[in-house]
Amino acid sequence: MTAQVRTRIWHEEPEPDNSFAARRALCHGYDVYGDMLGQARWVDMLFLLFRGEAPSAGQARMLEALALALSNPGPRDAAVHAAMCAGVGGSTAAAALIAALSVGAGKAGGAREVWAAIQLFKDCGRSPSAWERALATPAAERAGIWPQADHPPGFELHAARCGGVVERTLQVLAALSDGPCLPWLLQSRVPLEAAAGRGLAMTGVAAAAFVDLGFTPDQGEMLHLLLRLPGAAAHALEQKELGHKSFPFFALDLQDDPRGEA
Q: Helix or strand or coil: residue 137?
């Protein structure tokens, strides 16, 4: 008996004379190379892979806008900075991306925070009282690899209000969304920020977008990791080209620095 990989996502029809070469490939029933290639956009394929169905025109536009908003968090973002460090240090391309994924995976502005924020939207819906209770008493972390977060998911670590980039992203996505979460978040942002004591973060906007697009918390977490990689990759390559002499490595002020004794 031959072992088989089981998947509902992908089906290949082999060539008659070579069972290892695909003659036709179907993704959830859609002929990828026969019908989609040259006609569909990358976000169409992305949506199809995760949701198992083709997006509507509105869903595709919204996912494309979200992908653009997340594509480059900028060099101040910890995940991008990790990729930059890998690049300037001469690490391989894979190592730079792994650095970005690892640092950007957590609960302080990372993908796991998006997971928790999606769960919060699913638990609280659009009930102001439910949100106030959830923000006042965050759920305790179950035993696992993730430490307890020190701020509500979807909100800034320190800032009392959201920045202009986050606010503009929320406005654009809310206008594109056919779902309820983003428009509600746009209208409720100020009272939610007051209840949280922090400004809305990009993770919160992304979480609401993923909910409106029908993605699960696990799918949203994975997509958040994926969609932020282009910026990390570009910055890593740039710093590799510039070299370590142009990179601002952090200095440590040692109180017992032996060099000061000479």
A: coil
